[in-house]
């Protein structure tokens, strides 16, 4: 008995495994959620493009000056030593993402994600140049012509100009944007500025102009692990199949119950407006970014048909099953408490932050020494770090033991902004006043021109063994 092995190429159609990407043509939609998305785009992009041009106290309001290791955020100046604030900010961002996802699903993806925001702008340009959804489909199917080339070239030119502006603005957060524009006009941009403008510009052009929903579906990890943050009390966009099925087209005057139909008229508009091209009627899918465009268009159709709105709506799995929804639940309480605690700690730390640091290093060669005058002396190396945005002159004093004497040959210490100055000092005391072999002393450092800029750091004074 013989058997024949059939080659895989004869049993499997490669097209069934590797589906060719079909371009999505999102239909323009109006409604409350569409208005919220437009508002989000205007606010977020407005901040992105305007903030670099704001001035504050003689410098760019928000500037991350990497060569100078200075990070300006309005009246605050941060240094690499303040890295802890960035760590706290990232933790807050992660917790906020968990909190709002558990509460209302993919709010971030639908309204605030940079991919969503810039894609909305690119879609708007496309509609202004090529027309609405039907005109875009017709143009793409049309044979090549001078008119088609002109329209497509105009669209891509606008996209490229906007992308270049986006890249230039991005670099403007790291290089003063006024000097950046001057260098651009004079064709004297540096190699790193040129590289990052081109890189970020083409990233914007490629992601928002070409890949669009593919970034959300295939590249973004958030779509993959969001289900771990969902539960049956999380707000999701859902189609009410109990009310909508069986679906079918009908006239407005028709009696749907007599026809045995549900409220869904099978207009497919919910599919046409979806930026990722899914059918919400098939249930919750990881491709859904929560933009709520399907809610707006379905409510509009229901209103025209005279049916109640909400066939597609924000709801929860418990609500769909006829159970009570619990907004306040253990995970929400944990997220909220952590958010409030860490955010409060961050703001308190920033408000009470002293842009001055003093490091005290005792001389390791000798614990102490006795002077010819019979005094006990300790030698210290002080490192003064001025983390303020302006230079200051500091006055140094020491106390903690009776009769302490500070010998600082430099006198008042001038420290430029962002600089570290090393100052050797000697501290002396009459051994009569030294009750123990070791004692804590306090170094007081205060800005002469700004008295509120001061701090106290403890040091250790070592003396001989007392008899």
Characterise this structure.
By secondary structure, the chain is of the alpha+beta class. The chain has two domains: 19-353, no CATH class; 356-462, Immunoglobulins (Immunoglobulin-like, Sandwich), CATH 2.60.40.10. Helix content is 43%, strand content 18%. It has helices at residues 8-11, 14-17, 32-50, 83-104, 107-112, 114-130, 133-141, 146-171, 177-185, 191-211, 213-219, 222-225, 241-244, 256-259, 269-272, 293-305, 317-320, 330-351; strands at 55-56, 59-60, 62-65, 70-73, 76-78, 236-239, 312-315, 356-362, 369-370, 376-386, 392-399, 405-407, 413-415, 420-429, 438-447, 454-462. The strands form five sheets. Strands 8, 9, 10, 12 and 14 form a five-stranded antiparallel β-sheet that branches. The chain has a four-stranded antiparallel β-sheet with strand order 13-11-15-16, with no helix packed on it. A hairpin with a 2-residue loop joins β4 and β5. α3 (32-50) crosses α6, α6 packs across α10 (191-211) and α8 (146-171) packs across α10 (191-211). The longest helix is centred in the middle third of the chain and has 26 residues, at 146-171. It is elongated and about 110 Å long. The termini are far apart. Mean pLDDT is 89; it is low at 1-12.
């Amino acid at each position: 008995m013989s058997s024949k092995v059939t080659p895989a190429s004869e049993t499997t159609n490669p097209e069934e495994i590797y589906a060719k990407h079909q371009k999505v043509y999102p239909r323009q939609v109006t409604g409350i959620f569409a208005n919220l998305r437009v508002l989000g785009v205007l606010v977020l992009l407005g901040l992105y493009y305007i903030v670099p041009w704001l001035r504050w106290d003689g410098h760019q309001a928000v500037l991350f000056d990497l060569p100078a290791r200075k990070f300006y955020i309005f009246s605050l100046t941060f240094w690499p030593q303040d890295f802890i604030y960035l760590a706290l900010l990232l933790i807050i961002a992660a917790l906020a993402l968990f909190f709002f996802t558990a509460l209302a699903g993919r709010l971030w993806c639908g309204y605030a994600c940079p991919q969503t925001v810039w894609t909305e702008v690119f879609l708007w340009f496309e509609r202004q140049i090529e027309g609405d959804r039907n005109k875009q489909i017709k143009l793409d199917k049309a044979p090549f012509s001078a008119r088609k080339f002109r329209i497509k070239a105009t669209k891509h030119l606008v996209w490229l100009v906007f992308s270049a502006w986006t890249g230039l603005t991005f670099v403007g957060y790291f290089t003063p944007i006024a000097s950046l524009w001057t260098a651009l006009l004079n064709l004297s941009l540096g190699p790193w500025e040129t590289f990052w403008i081109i890189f970020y510009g083409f990233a914007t052009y490629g992601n928002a102009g070409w890949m669009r929903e593919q970034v959300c579906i295939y590249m973004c990890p958030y779509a993959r692990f969001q289900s771990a943050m969902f539960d049956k009390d999380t707000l999701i966009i859902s189609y009410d199949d109990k009310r909508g099925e069986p679906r079918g087209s009908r006239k407005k005057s028709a009696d749907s119950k007599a026809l045995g139909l549900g409220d869904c008229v099978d207009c497919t508009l919910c599919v046409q407006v979806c930026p990722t091209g899914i059918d919400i009627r098939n249930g919750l899918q990881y491709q859904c970014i929560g933009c709520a465009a399907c809610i707006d268009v379905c409510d509009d159709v229901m209103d025209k048909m005279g049916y109640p709105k909400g066939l597609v709506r924000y709801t929860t799995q418990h609500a769909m099953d006829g159970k009570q929804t619990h907004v306040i639940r253990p995970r929400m309480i944990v997220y909220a408490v952590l958010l409030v605690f860490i955010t409060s700690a961050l703001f308190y730390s920033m408000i009470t932050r002293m842009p001055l640091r003093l490091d005290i290093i005792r001389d390791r060669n000798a614990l102490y020494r006795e002077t010819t005058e019979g005094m006990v002396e300790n030698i210290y190396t002080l490192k003064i770090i001025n983390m303020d945005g302006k230079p200051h002159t500091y006055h140094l004093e020491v106390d903690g033991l009776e009769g302490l004497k500070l010998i600082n040959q430099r006198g008042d210490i001038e420290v430029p902004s962002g600089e570290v100055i090393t100052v050797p000092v000697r501290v002396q005391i009459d051994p009569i006043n030294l009750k123990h072999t070791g004692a804590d002393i306090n170094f007081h450092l205060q800005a002469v021109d700004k008295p509120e800029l001061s701090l106290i750091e403890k040091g250790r004074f070592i003396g001989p063994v007392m008899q």
